[in-house]
Amino acid sequence: QVQLVESGGGLVQAGGSLRLSCAASGIIFSINAMGWYRQAPGKQRELVAGISSGGSTNYADSVKGRFTISRDNAKNTVYLQMNNLKPEDTAIYYCSAGVPPRRRWGQGTQVTVSS
């Protein structure tokens, strides 16, 4: 019943921008912490950005100043605005809802940044 559907990925040149969206259903969205994670080939999945139910945010050092996470509780949607993209940002980006042991994951959306 829980669904997290990511969109907005694609191919972009270095220095460009993308905005990812994650539409959630089957959860009480407003009480769930939400996050964006990414996994590059040969790498472990890593936290990119998180936002608590209260709106506090945290970011990986590698994306601070470039990425912004936000949420719209009325739309049950969390966003990741990605600016000044770098080739090392290339990965599958996953939306998450909740915290362990109740974390749920989306299917992911591919972001490819060319140099």
User: For the terminal residues, how far apart are their CA atoms?
Assistant: 40 Å
Question: Rg, please?
Answer: 13 Å
What is the number of helical segments per DSSP (H or I, 4+ residues)? Answer: 0
What does the oligomeric state look like here? single chain
The major sheet is characterized as: 7 strands, mixed
Proportion of helical residues: under 10%
Name the average pLDDT. Answer: 97
Q: Uncertain regions: pLDDT < 50 for 5+ in a row?
A: none
Give the structural class: mainly beta
Helix and strand run: EEEEEEEEEEE
Strand content: over 45%
Total strand segments: 11
- The dominant shape is globular
Describe the structure in your own words.
- 0% of the residues lie in helices and 51% in strands.
- The mean pLDDT is 97.
- A hairpin with a 6-residue loop joins β9 and β10 (104-105).
- The protein has strands at 3-7, 10-13, 18-25, 34-39, 46-51, 57-59, 67-72, 77-82, 91-97, 104-105, 109-114.
- Strands 2, 4, 5, 6, 9, 10 and 11 form a 7-stranded mixed beta sheet that branches. The chain has a 4-stranded antiparallel beta sheet with strand order 1-3-8-7, with no helix packed on it.
- It has 115 residues and is mainly β.
- The chain is built from no helices and 11 strands.
Short note summarizing the structure:
This protein has strands at 3-7, 10-13, 18-25, 34-39, 46-51, 57-59, 67-72, 77-82, 91-97, 104-105, 109-114. The protein has no helices and eleven strands. Strand 9 and strand 10 (104-105) form a beta hairpin.
